[in-house]
TrEMBL record:
Boundaries of every Wall-associated receptor kinase galacturonan-binding domain copy: 26-75
Subcellular location: Membrane
Membrane topology: Single-pass membrane protein
Domain of life: Eukaryota
GO molecular function, one term: polysaccharide binding
Residues spanning the signal sequence: 1-19
Organism: Oryza glumipatula
InterPro entries on file: WAK_GUB
Protein name: Wall-associated receptor kinase galacturonan-binding domain-containing protein
Source taxonomy: Eukaryota, Viridiplantae, Streptophyta, Embryophyta, Tracheophyta
Pfam families in the cross-refs: GUB_WAK_bind (PF13947)
Length: 276
């Protein structure tokens, strides 16, 4: 076995489940993306809840309808692409179009939206977008306002998302459900000549840089092809390491495997204590 090969195998050994080891015949790649256990492309190759789909025609990896871009085994996150919601003026109707807003539901899955590394990002010149979620503690709705007046176009600044043409906010920890909506009272019927659409999405912070033309054109949506990357954390089960270690289905059992509690809600991940 080449040293190169060994590097890819090591992390997988760390989280191997003795009782239900996946068959060695399992496909571990989809279009260049490594798919380490507990993830897999068939239920027999994955821990419950971690099976993914590879569309070989497109060369894309999916969790349900969401495209998966990266998997981090040691840090317990994945990157997914999620639709950008929009709310636009329609020249034919002479009114606002129905807002196009996307619901992302991760309840009863091992995934949670990461509060670290993501920002709810709203783009527009007259818009108030909400992020709604129904969590265990009841309903939560928060949002932010982005404005800019026609005469103020010059005050838009590349790289600065601070309320003028763009606003951002963090999300609470542990969310598994989210929906975007636009407040119809803040619409573009009076400013459609220079800003027809408003956009909102939860976006990986490091992947986003505000550009002036985002608030006055479709450049934002175009740049991301309608779908922006976001960080999603995953964890095994919903128990802490301490509790899970007593159970027969405990997963971090190989010698160099170390249990780490999930930082984002419940569950745990397995780390390589002897990894280089
Ligand atoms: C996991 O596998 C089951 C059975 O093949 C399938 O019904 C389910 O849709 C798969 N889940 C994902 C996210 O692909
Ligand atoms: C794969 O993607 C192609 C192109 O988008 C689509 O036509 C096809 O139905 C997909 N296959 C599966 C198994 O989802
Ligand atoms: C995601 O994977 C691609 C290659 O598939 C790599 O170039 C990129 O650096 C990875 N991104 C992160 C944030 O790890
Ligand atoms: C505007 O509204 C009309 C009538 O509902 C619809 O057919 C058309 O697709 C809309 N235009 C856009 C750009 O969404
Ligand atoms: C949360 O929203 C749902 C659906 O809109 C509603 O039925 C429920 O009463 C709300 N719960 C709380 C605690 O506000
Ligand atoms: C936009 O979508 C949200 C969620 O579906 C809905 O509550 C809201 O009323 C919609 N607003 C308009 C103007 O259609
Ligand atoms: C759009 O905003 C205007 C005020 O600027 C308001 O009169 C109108 O009712 C709003 N349109 C919709 C669809 O809510
Ligand atoms: C938008 O532009 C058209 C033609 O340039 C003009 O007739 C119309 O009055 C303008 N509408 C607004 C709301 O400024
Ligand atoms: C944003 O993410 C996409 C998809 O992984 C990547 O192709 C692109 O280079 C990233 N852009 C930045 C600025 O990080
Ligand atoms: C918007 O600005 C970005 C960065 O300055 C540029 O790359 C892009 O081509 C512009 N898009 C449009 C439609 O002007
Ligand atoms: C392990 O088993 C316990 C019951 O003994 C169950 O509550 C828990 O959800 C299981 N964990 C996983 C990751 O399947
Ligand atoms: C933990 O997971 C088990 C099995 O998936 C479920 O029965 C239980 O209600 C969950 N407990 C909590 C606190 O979410």
């Amino acid at each position: 076995m080449s040293p190169f090969h060994l590097l890819f195998v090591l992390p997988w050994l760390c989280v191997a489940v003795l009782a239900s080891d996946p068959p060695p015949s399992c496909e571990r790649k989809c279009s260049g993306i490594e798919i380490p256990y507990p993830f897999g492309l068939e239920p027999a190759c994955a821990l419950s809840g971690f099976n993914l789909t590879c569309n070989t025609t497109e060369g894309k990896l999916y969790f349900g309808n969401a495209e998966l871009l990266n998997i981090s085994l040691l840090e317990g996150w994945v990157r997914m692409r999620m639709d950008i919601s929009s709310y636009c003026y329609n020249d034919t109707l002479h009114d606002m179009d129905e807002n196009y807003s996307w619901v992302f539901d991760l309840t009863d899955t091992p995934y949670r939206l990461s509060d670290v590394g993501n920002m709810f990002t709203v783009i527009g010149c007259r818009t108030l977008a909400y992020i709604d979620n129904l969590d265990v503690d009841g309903n939560l709705t928060t949002g932010c306002v982005a404005t800019c007046r026609q005469g103020e176009y010059s005050s838009l600044t590349d790289g600065a998302c601070s309320g003028i043409g763009c606003c951002q906010m963090t999300i609470p920890m542990g969310l598994q459900y989210y929906q975007v909506s636009f407040d119809p009272r803040f619409n573009t019927t009076e400013i459609y000549n220079f800003s027809r659409c408003s956009y909102a999405a939860l976006i990986e912070s490091s992947n986003f840089t505000f550009s002036k033309n985002y608030s006055t054109s479709s450049a934002f949506n175009d740049y991301y092809g309608g779908q922006a990357p976001l960080r999603v954390v995953w964890a095994i089960g919903n128990e802490t390491c301490e509790v899970a270690q007593e159970k027969s289905n405990y997963t971090c059992i190989s010698n160099n495997s170390e249990c780490v509690d999930s930082l984002n809600g419940s569950g745990y991940i397995c780390n390589c204590s002897e990894a280089r």
